[in-house]
Every structure is written in C-alpha cells, then in structure tokens.
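Duplicate of #3305? Posting structure anyway:
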C-alpha cells in the first residue's frame, strides 16, 4: 500500500522552470490530527515567561506523525537525489535504538 505523492520543488530559482517529482511512501498514511498545547512550568510550578508572555508548546496529538513525516521526507530526498533508502516503518511504541 504505497501512497504516490506529487510535489513541486519550492526552492527553485524564479527564472528556472518548476520541477515536479513523484515518489512512493510505503505504509499507512498518518493524519496530523488535532493539536495539543501545554503551558511550560518551572520546578516551582509557576508558568515560564518569555518577553512577558507564557511559554506554550504545541504538538500534534498523533504519536505516529513524526515517524510518518520522516518517512515522507526520506522518500522525497531519495527521489530528489536519485537514491532511495528502504527501511521498514517503526511505530511510536517501538523502542529507540
């Protein structure tokens, strides 16, 4: 179950022709899902402030999204450079080496 993805190279010089490339990412597509935001607190439990504002971290709610984005980026890089590195997908619950 590969997903054929078509993108345009946005890094081109305006005087050059826009290039198009296609590549396949094997595996199940992962949706971005909702966003979750958290206020950062210091050791005393007080909100961390920067430039007079509370520091907030926002991330995607889907734990598998980072791995999927890495797979898509690797496939795109491989297609652009002419080499494709194939490796099985790791789930977010698998241990890091």
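Output from current build:
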């Amino acid at each position: 179950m590969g997903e054929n993805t078509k993108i345009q190279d946005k890094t081109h010089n305006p005087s050059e022709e826009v290039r198009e490339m296609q590549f396949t990412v094997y595996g199940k597509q992962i949706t971005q899902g909702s966003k979750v935001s958290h206020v950062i607190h210091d050791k005393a439990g007080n909100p961390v402030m920067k430039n007079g504002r509370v520091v907030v971290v926002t991330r995607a709610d889907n734990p598998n999204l980072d791995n999927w984005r890495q797979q898509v980026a690797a496939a795109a890089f491989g297609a652009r450079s002419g080499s494709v590195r194939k490796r099985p997908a790791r789930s977010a619950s698998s241990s890091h080496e």
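Confirmed duplicate; merging threads. Confidence is low (pLDDT under 50) at residues 91-97. The two ends are 27 Å apart (CA to CA).
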